């Protein structure tokens, strides 16, 4: 563990956690239901996001179908498996962002940048709480309103903190004069509030923009790694 912590901030560590994040996301995608059982009018939101933003029992019907739907059990099983795998994703993206900001702190000789990395770790913990609530909600869909009342808090704390880390990455890349990478990180913080105000319309795109920030962090790490490898011994 001490060796792992010691390598945080190195380009190799950041790339490793990015690769793990992408790999886990790809595996999760194969388990989550691909489409809603009953379309939500005016929205093309994916089932897993509708579960995160669910605010009334009818949304669970949209996701899983009516009790007599023969595919309902498979949809529930797929959603639960995907959300179980999400517990692997949480440390991956948390450590990706933490490693990136540890690296920025070294490059800019300012340890205060590490603070933004720890925000992603808090986001991952909030994500774990969110999933626990969703498991409880799916386990007893006949009485899901208490969980639905709690769910927005960890959901938007997670997305808010991750968007904030992207905003901090904009500032970091600007200091490093890496303007294209800075631009990649702009959409997530810019679209956060509009997404919160339109959870079934704009939010799916707004939250996906966090992935652009992670990609920018990985590109930065990759270019630093290449530059270091080309230095004469």
From TrEMBL:
Keywords: Membrane, Transmembrane, Transmembrane helix. The chain crosses the membrane at residues 12-32, 87-104, 116-135, 155-174, 179-197, 209-227. This is DUF4386 family protein. It comes from the Bacteria. The keyword Lyase does not apply. The keyword Transmembrane applies.
